[in-house]
Amino acid sequence: MNNKFYIQLSEGFSEVECLRFLQRSPFECLFQVENDRIYFPLEIEEIVFLIRVHFKKSRLWVEVLKGKLTPFSKKVIKSYISEWLDIKRDLSDFYKMGKKDPLLKPLVNKNKGLPLIGIPSFLEAISWAIIGQQINLTFAYTLKKRLVEHYGKVILFEGRTFYLFPKATIIAQLTEEDLRPHQFSRSKIKYLTGVAQAIVDGKISKEILSKMSYEEAKNKLVELKGIGNWSADYVLMKCLRHPDAFPITDVGLHNAIKFQLGQKEKPSIEAIEKMAVNWKGWKSYVTFYLWHSLLK
């Protein structure tokens, strides 16, 4: 079987904005972007694949650099990429709504075709939400990089090093002695290992949450120690793809709204709730576009 295939992109998909988002941090350690090619490893049934993708003529071309491409592995890889980059989403209704909204109109015009780039792995998404609590984004990336490089699986290819996110069984066994030297706080260690153990025990999973309504899934998540409303909404937005997941208390969201409206003060929660009435069905996308507007 050929080691290449393509995924048809939805009309108007913006490869420029997609690549811009993916290159937002030099500290990202789970994929690499070079010369507009995206490289990332993916484990399928204990076999590690290395994949390279690039955009060309409304298609996303996929090449397997390491691992054997079979009908099954092709299906998994295609599904993973489509979910990660939200390739199948029809955004026409989102843009119709956005063009009628004074806050969103300049954003949808500027970033048209930008997909909500997610995190397909539930463990990675919830761990990232915990790592990012109450610290700046640069330090959050630094902590994730240290966790991944010390405890994730390593893949070498043509002189380059790639990493997979550590498995739940590994994170669940980590101790303060393991993570404190990497500047993880005691609370983050407790929350990370606790969530990983809950996943190992089968108490929580992407599959379990996917069968629930938004409110049920959010309530299930906040039962976990270290997961509050913001973290739950982040996971539901980036991993479970709930359209109305909305981290309304997020500081970045507030700053983006303030900047877009040219205001001196950040908006109140009540003011944001009034704005969000018109965003029903697209609150997660609105949040993502507002966050994206903060990129320099």
What key phrases describe this protein's structure?
alpha+beta; five-stranded antiparallel β-sheet; 7 strands; 296 residues
Low-confidence stretches: none
Largest sheet descriptor: 5 strands, antiparallel
Portion in helices? 40-55%
Strand content: 5-15%
Q: What series of H and E elements makes up the topology?
A: EHEEEEHHHHHEEHHHHHHHHH
The count of DSSP E runs of length 2 or more, i.e. the number of strands, is: 7
How are the strands ordered across the major sheet? 1-5-4-3-2
The Rg value, from CA coordinates, equals: 19 Å
- The 3D shape can be described as globular
Number of helices: 15
Class by SSE composition: alpha+beta
Q: In whole angstroms, how far apart are the ends? A: 42 Å
Overall mean pLDDT score?
95
What can be said about this structure in brief?
The chain is α+β, with helices and mostly antiparallel strands and 296 residues long. Helix content is 46%, strand content 14%.
Describe this structure in words.
With about 300 residues, the chain is an alpha+beta fold. Strand 4 and strand 5 form a beta hairpin. The strands form two sheets. Strands 1-5-4-3-2 form a five-stranded antiparallel sheet, covered by helices on one side. It has 15 helices and seven strands. The mean pLDDT is about 95.
